[in-house]
Amino acid sequence: MKHRSLRSDRRTTVRGGRRSSDYGGHAPMIVVIDEDAERRDVVEAALAQRRFAVAPFQSVEQAIPSLRTLRPQAVVASVDVAATLRVARGAGSAGRAIPTLPVTSQTLQPDRLVASLRRLLRRAR
């Protein structure tokens, strides 16, 4: 006699990770650069909960070598870091321009952060 569970087979139901409107296997790659660990963790958690692929970095120096490999759709960074990143990319980077969203006290709120990021991604298409 086969054992049948009363619960339905989990593999037949959609659960977390993707929206039905997402392309198969597609989650926008977002690089988060912030020297403030607490703020970086808040931004990372807010984006990950909303199904973005997130790569956090503590500094521009750590992030620059990975930008070419990761090919992020956008960078979310503190205002100071965003300015430094623009200068660093302009100094000899032959890669594509990556849209950058500076994090301010207003955009640090998760809903505003995601709305601003989605606007940035739509404009960049």
Structural commentary:
By secondary structure, the chain is of the alpha/beta class. It has a single domain (25-124), classed as Response regulator (Rossmann fold), CATH 3.40.50. It has four helices and four strands. The chain has a four-stranded parallel sheet, with helices on both faces. The longest helix has 15 residues, at 110-124. It is globular, with a radius of gyration of 18 Å. The termini are far apart.
Structure in a nutshell:
The chain has 125 residues and is α/β, with parallel strands linked by helices. The chain has helices at 37-49, 60-70, 79-90, 110-124, and strands at residues 29-33, 53-57, 74-78, 100-103.
| Strand arrangement in the largest pleated sheet | 2-1-3-4
What's the story with the biggest beta sheet? Answer: 4 strands, parallel
Q: How many domains would you count in the coordinates?
A: 1
Strand residues, percent: 15-25%
Shape, principal axes of CA atoms: globular
Structural class comes to alpha/beta
Question: How is this fold's topology laid out?
Answer:
Layout: E1 29-33, H1 37-49, E2 53-57, H2 60-70, E3 74-78, H3 79-90, E4 100-103, H4 110-124
Parallel strand pairs: 1-2, 1-3, 3-4
